[in-house]
Design brief:
Layout (H helix, E strand, L loop, with lengths): L1 H7 L14 H10 L8 E4 H7 L4 H8 L2 E5 L3 H17 L3 E4 L11 H10 E8 L3 E10 L8 H4 L15 H5 L23 H4 L4 H8 L17
Parallel strand pairs: 1-2, 2-3
Antiparallel strand pairs: 4-5
Length: 227
């Protein structure tokens, strides 16, 4: 909306650094991996409130994977996990909307139209995973005057990832945060080395803050990886 408004006002002192990502292409990339360990997904309710969840339906059907749209209250998350596990135990797949109080299948159509008028899909680099085609948004040519990458010539700047970080394997469900040699020592929320520790919602940050509750627990015969 800010970019659209800037264009309408012919502003010349406004720009954005666009790093938007698209979740469905990333999900397809993960599920297409021959050694994927992901059995189900909790789809972010705030995204689906705008974009709806129809895009997830062909993914669930193609890869026979349950996808549950959830909110962010503790009961929402518990219910989402419960529904995902119930579907897995029953051998069922598809998209289920746990967050029906805020999300509809079609989403906010007017907001989607504005997004499509301002942005177009592009290849996006995912930390720890690599480039995924059509997994991000960039400004359309008619709005490129507001692109900070072009305006300030920073398009070739890249972040150097620590060789110790196994964020890609963690985000793909192949490793646990505790499997990382830097976890809790050289990598902490105050000094993160990778994306899962940077975000308060990341797996590494969660293990760091709440992992002590797992130490006394006995391992389950089979653990389900929820992406």
């Amino acid at each position: 909306m800010s970019v659209w408004y800037a264009a309408q006002q012919s502003l010349s002192n406004f720009s954005i650094l666009c790093s938007h990502v698209l979740v469905p292409p990333a999900m397809v990339a993960l599920l297409s991996s021959p050694d994927t360990l992901i059995d189900g997904f909790l789809a972010a309710g705030h995204v689906c409130a705008v974009m709806g969840y129809a895009e997830y339906e062909p993914i669930a059907a193609t890869y026979q994977t349950p996808i549950v749209v959830t909110g962010f209250e503790p009961l929402d998350l518990l219910d989402g996990i419960y529904r995902t596990l119930t579907a897995l135990e029953a051998g069922q797949y598809g998209v289920e909307n746990q967050y029906s109080r805020a999300v509809t299948r079609q989403g906010n159509v007017q907001a989607q139209e504005l997004v499509r008028r301002v942005f177009e899909p592009c290849t996006r680099q995912w930390r720890g995973i690599g480039p995924i085609p059509a997994s991000g948004y960039q400004l359309r040519p008619e709005f490129r005057a507001y692109d900070a990458e072009q305006r300030f010539e920073v398009i070739n700047l890249t972040a150097q990832e620590s060789p110790l970080c196994i964020a890609g394997q963690i985000m793909q469900g192949r490793k646990r945060p505790s499997d990382c040699s830097a976890f809790g020592t050289r990598c902490t929320p105050e000094h993160p080395l990778g994306a899962p520790m940077v975000s308060s919602e990341g797996a590494c940050a969660a293990y760091y803050h709440y992992g002590q509750h797992r130490q006394a627990a006995q391992p389950m015969p089979h653990e389900v990886s929820i992406g």
